[in-house]
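A reminder before we start the practical. When you read a complex entry, don't treat the lines as separate problems. The point of joint prediction is that each chain is placed relative to the others, so the output describes one connected object in space. Small molecules and nucleic acid strands, if listed, are placed in the same frame. In the example below there are two entries. Take a minute to note the order of the lines before looking further.
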Amino acid sequence: MKEILADIDNWQQAGKQVALATVVQVYGSAPRPLGAKLAVSEDGAMVGSVSGGCVESATVQEALEVLETGKPRLVSFGIADETAWEVGLACGGTIEVFIEPLNW
Amino acid sequence: MAVLFDAAAKTIRQDELCAVVTVLNGDEIGRKLLVRRERVAGGSEPAVTATGSLGDAAMDQAAVARAAEVMEARRTTRVTLPVEDRECELLIDVHVPQERLVIVGAVHIAIPLVSFARELGLYTVVIDARPIFATQDRFGHVDELIRSWPDEALQEMKLNESSYVVTLTHDEKLDTPALICALDRPVGYIGALGSKRTHAKRVTALREAGVSDEQISRIHAPIGLDLGGRSPGEIALAIMAEIVQVRNRVKEAGR
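Here is the predicted structure of the whole assembly.
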């Protein structure tokens, strides 16, 4: 969390909406632990990481929808075997990511 | 807006232990609690404080109790709380402060102690006002070398439960004011180098300075686990081993 605060601050100072994605469940092997975070600004910029690269772009899409609806959601991602290989894992895992508007 | 987030961000920036509790399902999805746990200076019992609400006072109470346990274990955890006829899924997201070892006295033992502490992931600080001890040549490997009086340096330092303070100077004039200062702060470990006899003299000096026996009993002295060693490296290892033991016992006990 600490490492993404400066970017969030900058976005908010610039009057931009921000969504926050957090890993809330990890099944099997996954590159990032529970609590790992990715913040997304309304123009699609991101900081942090929920998966070491595998599902970041999908998370950004979901985050932009969350900013539009204003409603938090829980999303499940399977990490494909080949992607898992790339990040140094022998098998694919599944992660659950909670995505919310940063308005609390 | 963003009142709770701002408070959480501030706590995290100050590198203090805290937890953000989030509801992950049901009507209350996205509701939050910020839980902080601070040991009041001079007191022995930490106080848990909560800001925000999950939407129900009984839920809040149950969630804060779980958050306090999870914070003590220093590990972000997902939990399920039964609420009437349904189950509430919560993420208890813990910010764990950086552990730091503050060494008073840039003495020989401090050199290997800095190495051991860094190996274990601790941020290291060495304080000594004496220029011939506190040199870059001797302490090129320390994160922070502070050349000033120990009590003055400690006074200005951010110290919390993840901070461990050891005094190694062997000099009452330096160690005792540093200990008085450390005892007044909510640090996780305080150790003082010196024999039983030296410590007995120190206890007398601390009492005379108005420090209570309860506070004095927080000092680990003689410092370190009894490994039977005599060399600086062995003593440093004994000190580091004791710090690891204290820190892991707290975790295990789940207090």
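Discuss with your neighbour: The helical segments of chain A are 5-13, 56-69, 81-86. What might explain this?
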